[in-house]
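Collaborator request, handled under Task 6.
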Amino acid sequence: MPSVALKDRVPFGARGPLGIVVDPMTWRAAPYLLITGATGIGWFVVLSLALPASLTLTVVWVGVPLMMATVLMWRGGAMLERRLMHAAFGVKIADPYQSRPERGVGAHLRWLLGDAATWQDLGYLLMLLPLGLVETAVSVVLWFTAVTLIIQPLLMSLWVAAGVYTELTIDSWPGALVAMVFGTLVFVLAAYLVRGMAWLHGTLATVLLGGSQEERLRASRARGIDAAEAERRRIERDLHDGAQQRLLSVAVDLGRAQSKFDSEPEEARMLIAQAHAGTKAAIAELRNLARGIHPAILSDRGLDAALSGLAARAPVRVDVSVELRERPPAAVESIAYFIVAESLTNMAKHSGATEASVTVLRDHRGVVVDVWDNGIGGAVVCPGGGLSGLADRAATIDGVLVLHSPVGGPTLVRAELPCEW
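Structure tokens returned to the collaborator:
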């Protein structure tokens, strides 16, 4: 396994100057921060014109559709910002809006204006002006200063070669080399500030664009209910198609054996043997089903033993590290187990990995589960897919699932599971 610490593979989790500079996420965030000032000015101008106009015209009928168009416009802008947050900062924010009504102008107006997320969107877009101007100003000054200082030796060589003599502050090779070194330090400082501003911007965007806490909890509970219903259907299907069919076959074989016991004892004996084999197969089916619901080793010995068992059955070497001073709640243990199980299954099927690791630790927020592999990457969360189901499991206790799987690998699945909810 690579020597880099597992926690350093998390998006925006690089440590050290070199890690900060070479991390692709830094260079995704830098362009966004350079233009966010212009974005803030644009939204401020548009909203400053559209809002007063639509409010003034509400006294006549034309103001109503204009108001709806204005609200839909800023909601569309907020939806675009959520996508940009994911692309630039790696922060995934789901749209928190209430369900759209089927018909009726009045119903649509109440839907637009009565949703708290609508006004939080407006607050975020207006906040872009001061925040964006600061981010853009800091970014422009630092990047311009760093690049200007770093290229001083190149400028010196061009000036000397061209025979140009001007009154420059830096007019010697030693001065140019010192400027290049200082510019490199400013360049690293700029990368750090990009990460800091990206973290601050992403945090504010999560608070404003992610909806209220009540709405997030409601969505989390809804996803939990859907996940529980899907699990119930899976168990019902497995029972019907597996153990139930085997037991039905056993009953038929025993009935035939009973009818032939006196007339054809040899055939009856064969049918009984067949029923015996079917019974053992049904028991195995039920055992596997019970393990899928909740493995006994998890209840008896905890996560360390249960995850070690999963790692032993994996087709590649999996390093397991569980750092828990005390056992977390049973729900957290169960969700952590199934997240690791599904992640390792996906790894075996799709990633082509040759090694993997599982790390479970406790921090101030709860239990953090990391599953890493060195496969080809490219994993995505699709509705109805396995990773989506894991996110739904985590959501039942207000947990969060984060996937980092660039094309070419590696892949990291991180689950943050609170121990209180």
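The cover message to the collaborator said: "Residues 87 and 418 are 26 Å apart (CA to CA). Confidence is low (pLDDT under 50) at residues 1-15, 163-168. Please let us know whether this matches your experimental observations."
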